[in-house]
Amino acid sequence: MGNIVSISTIGQDSHRLGDVCDGTTIRLGGIDIPCNRPIVANSDGDVVFHAITNAISGYTCVNILGGEADKICLQQGIKDSSVYLNKALEYLTDARIIHCSITIECLRPKLMSHIQSMRESIGKILDIPAASVGITATTGEGLTEFGRGEGIQVFVILTLAKEI
Fold first, then answer.
1. Longest dimension (CA), the chain
2. What does each of the 164 residues of the chain score in pLDDT, given as a tens digit?
3. Do residues 114 and 163 touch, judged by C-beta distance below 8 A?
4. Which of 70, 94, 116, 156 counts the most CB atoms within 10 A of its CB?
5. What is the pTM of this model?
């Protein structure tokens, strides 16, 4: 058996929020969250899953978003971001995810009561325990468009284990 090394990779994504409307939910981390403004996107706009997908792409060097996801979404009509994330995971063949750290910047929706459900959903799709998914949320003191309520920005750091 060889040595195990840990590798970190970062992913980012952001989406604008649309106009105010009643009865809307948005999808973040695979769960639906009430919000009075929809996410503007071709897909379901799950910016958390998109950032995780980008972090995996940073390791595998296979760009899923803007590449394969566009084909899946625009040509096949599949809007579910978990499909794109699962596609990225198919290319993760020589390492495994052991931890996922997520920072979400937005004014709305308020996320505190949804974080545990998000951790469980993300852990399930990444095949890691929910305890290995850390999520923080911030408004950034309103210094950016995201903290002022115009959109949502997410940064993800994945820790991978690889045998060498």
1. 57
2. 679 999 999 999 999 999 998 878 999 999 999 999 999 988 899 999 999 999 999 999 999 988 777 777 677 777 889 999 999 999 999 999 999 999 999 999 999 999 999 999 999 999 999 999 999 999 989 899 999 999 999 999 999 999 98
3. no
4. 156
5. 0.95
Q: What radius of gyration, in Å, describes the C-alpha atoms of the chain?
A: 16
Instruction: Tell the burial category of 71 from Cβ atoms under 10 Å away from its Cβ (0-12, 13-18, 19+).
Output: exposed
- 16 and 150 Cβ atoms separated by less than 8 Å: yes
Q: Which helix (H) or strand (E) holds 3?
A: none
| Token pair listed for 35 | 């919000």
User: How would you list the strands of the sheet with 4-16, edge to edge?
Assistant: 4-16, 151-163, 96-105, 133-138
